Amino acid sequence: VKPLEEASLHNIFNNHSLILTVEDGCIKGGFGSAILEFAAEFGYKIPIKILGIPDYFIEHGSIKELQHQTGLDPEGIAKTIEDFTRHYQ
What we know:
By secondary structure, the chain is α+β, with helices and mostly antiparallel strands. It has helices at residues 6-15, 31-42, 63-69, 74-87, and strands spanning 19-26, 48-53. The protein starts with 5 loop residues before the first helix and ends with a helix.
């Protein structure tokens, strides 16, 4: 996704009160990190939550099992959205 589409991101940050990124890659150094860097560079102060693969060893398994373990399955994403929005209401 690099380079980031800054015009679109400015539009998103100016029109939304929460940001949630979802990626099936590593959180550290990934898309969500780039969004945090963008927010910091331009002084945006809204809550940002990053969903992705954490920086620890994950056991082997099927893609479905691993997505469930890391919260990247539909149920995990929905729960994160519910918890995140409830926390900032």
